[in-house]
Automatic annotation (TrEMBL):
InterPro entries in the cross-refs: ClpP/crotonase-like_dom_sf, Enoyl-CoA_hyd/isom_CS, Enoyl-CoA_hydra/iso, Enoyl-CoA_hydra_C
Pfam families noted in UniProt: ECH_1
Keyword Manganese attached: no
UniProt entry tagged with the keyword Transmembrane helix: no
Gene3D superfamilies: 2-enoyl-CoA Hydratase, Chain A, domain 1 (3.90.226.10), Lyase 2-enoyl-coa Hydratase, Chain A, domain 2 (1.10.12.10)
Taxonomy of the source species: Bacteria, Pseudomonadati, Pseudomonadota, Betaproteobacteria, Burkholderiales
Record protein name field: Enoyl-CoA hydratase-related protein
Length: 263
């Protein structure tokens, strides 16, 4: 499958998805959204060799600079039409957030607006020291509308999220790490190595267990503790008789590396 706006390859059990609109700072225009949907949900989901996904941007300037403002400025959208269209964006980002396999964002440059909102859908964020982050929508008279008002407070806390959104401030990678927006900051030339190292650590574990652990974490932060614990019990029950659990126990006793099959 070929894409107009991104590159897709599988390397060492990792699906590497590279946003590829360098002339437009890898903005979410053109066919970027349907391309992302197809790459993640059609290709990476159904490839059993893929244990995790790395999402990054081409070049060293931008991970994703958000919406393509030049594209949008040329069109006039009726509020009712926008409301329906934005639902599709919300669903795409929700699909990425809930994707069964771990997704690592390797943030190689600016992650602004929708680009930061996309990164927030990923499970782990590793940033180049040259990366920049922000939700500057207020500067052009709109609000973060691809989940930014919901996901950012869940990651950095309400007060910090309000400050970033209200001021439209662009912060550097070190500040992003301080507020726990990103997990790690590395030198630009080491970014993809760090992402693959993280993917390798993930790949050593049972994929079925990680799938249910991810679901349990994602659900748990949305509901009360009792509902979260109930789902955790369900998730643990779903893997208790799996081949992976049996292999994990057996390999531990035999003091060898496990061979997991995801079932």
């Amino acid at each position: 499958m070929k894409f107009e706006t991104l590159l897709y390859e599988v390397k060492e059990g990792v699906a590497v998805i590279t946003l590829n609109r360098p002339d437009r700072m890898n903005t979410l225009g053109g066919t970027m959204k349907p391309d992302l949907q197809a790459a993640i949900l059609d290709l990476a989901r159904h490839d059993d060799s893929v244990r995790s996904v790395i999402l990054t941007g081409v070049g060293d300037r931008a991970f994703c600079a958000g919406a393509d403002i030049k594209e949008r400025a040329a069109t006039q959208t009726h509020p009712a039409d926008y409301y329906v269209k934005q639902k599709a964006t919300h669903q795409l980002f929700r699909n990425i957030e809930e994707f069964e396999k771990p997704i690592i964002a390797a943030i190689n440059g600016v992650a602004l607006g929708g680009g930061l909102e996309l990164a927030l859908c990923c499970d782990i964020r590793i940033a180049s020291s040259t990366a920049r982050f922000g939700l500057p929508e207020g500067k052009i008279g709109v609000i973060p509308a691809a989940g930014g008002t919901q996901r950012l407070p869940r990651v950095v806390g309400v007060g910090v999220a309000k400050e970033l959104i209200f001021t439209s401030e662009i912060i550097d990678a070190q500040r992003a790490h301080e507020i726990r927006l990103v997990n790690h900051v590395v030198a630009p030339e080491k970014l993809m190595d760090a992402a693959f190292e993280m993917a390798a650590k993930i790949a050593r574990n049972a994929p079925l267990a990680l799938r249910f652990a991810k679901q349990s974490i994602n659900l748990g932060i949305e509901v009360g503790i009792e509902a979260g614990l109930e789902f955790e019990r369900y998730a643990a029950t779903m893997v208790v008789d799996s081949e992976d659990r049996k292999e994990g126990m057996k390999s531990f006793v035999e003091k060898r590396a496990p061979v997991f099959k995801g079932r």
